[in-house]
Amino acid sequence: MDEQATHKDRQKKELQKQLDEFQMLLAIYCNPGELRVDDYGCIDNLTSYISGETDRLTTKLDYRFELPLLPDQKVQILIELPHRYPALEMPRIVIRSAVIPRDQERRLTDRIVRYIEEEVLERDEAYVLQVVGWIQDNFAELLAATAERKESKSCPRSTGATTSPVVFERLWIYSHHLKSKMKRQTIIKTARDLRLTGFSRPGKPAIICVEGQQADTQEFWRTIKPLKWQKIQIKLCETETVAAGGENEMAALRHFAAGFREELFCADMDEDSDAEDQPMSMSLFMKFLDKHRCGYIKKELFGFQNAIDAPAS
Q1: Which of 117, 146, 175 is the endpoint of a domain?
Q2: 3-state secondary structure string, the chain?
Q3: What is the pLDDT of residues 82-128, one digit of tens each?
Q4: What total number of domains does the chain contain?
Q5: According to a count of CB atoms within 10 Å of the terminal CB, is the N or C end of the chain lower?
Q6: Which residues constitute the domain of residue 63?
Q7: Are residues 216 and 257 in the same domain?
Q8: Is residue 152 included in any domain, yes or no?
Q9: RWD domain: from which residue to which, for each copy (predicted)?
């Protein structure tokens, strides 16, 4: 019991360091839009946990910078802090920009991890400010270094080889259940950060669909698969090759053009629910699939072609 209390006390100290650092960052990056939090409820949850008002941590602190690091183009720096940051776990720091290829974004992420491992010597104290400052000061060099590695691999080809096709992919993911608020937030945030479209249905069973460039859908799968699941699997993977620059063709292949969102398919459940033991309304779900030209997935998910209880619309 003493050991458990000591662990909890240590975690509260780490979380307090996260909140103190965030307040400091707000004071430094105070121009409109420079620093944003998508859900201030995460701060309320951490504060309540530290004060002892709740024993449950239902979310992580995450926020994003939007900084003019490129000419006429703002760059996002996405921050997600695990509960044991800074002392025991590293933050997840990802750079996003519409003009930076996804492969290069991944190399930038790897370079940030290497910087933390090699240059951040005092990890008992919060260090997001140090890392973000380093990114700002060295962004041009970071871009050049990560781009050069990509170019060196494609050197033997002619300089016109930028027209290689890309692969559009749609993943249908099935899980025994999804009730954790933290998992639900991770799914939504990861899909939106990767600019994927689709939906997530929490409850029992849980169904997730993501669509976009294959590099991004596979990154999504790599991110959510290690989370604790009773059972999770890809039920169907749909792919189609699209010519480079074929944005219109890519858009036409999407069945969920409005973006990525959580869909409940349950009349008496809202987004603040814990989604525990909530039955799916099969009728609502079948109508949703038909509306989005996805009726064919019924057999893959449930083993039948048509929903008997779904009235024709």
Answers
A1: 146
A2: CHHHHHHHHHHHHHHHHHHHHHHHHHHHCCCCCCEECCCCHHHHHHHHHHHCCCCCCCCCEEEEEEEEEECCEEEEEEEEECCCCCCCCCCEEEEECCCCCHHHHHHHHHHHHHHHHHHCCCCCCCCHHHHHHHHHHHHHHHHHHHHHHHHHHCCCCCCCHHHCCEEEEEEEEEECCECCHHHHHHHHHHHHHCCCEEEEECECCEEEEEEEEHHHHHHHHHHHCCCCCCCEEEEEEEEEEECCCCHHHHHHHCCCCCCEEECCCCCCCCCCCCCCCCCCCHHHHHHHHHHCCCCCHHHHHHCCCCCCCCCCC
A3: 899 999 899 989 898 878 887 888 899 999 999 999 999 888 999 99
A4: 2
A5: N
A6: 9-146
A7: yes
A8: no
A9: 20-142
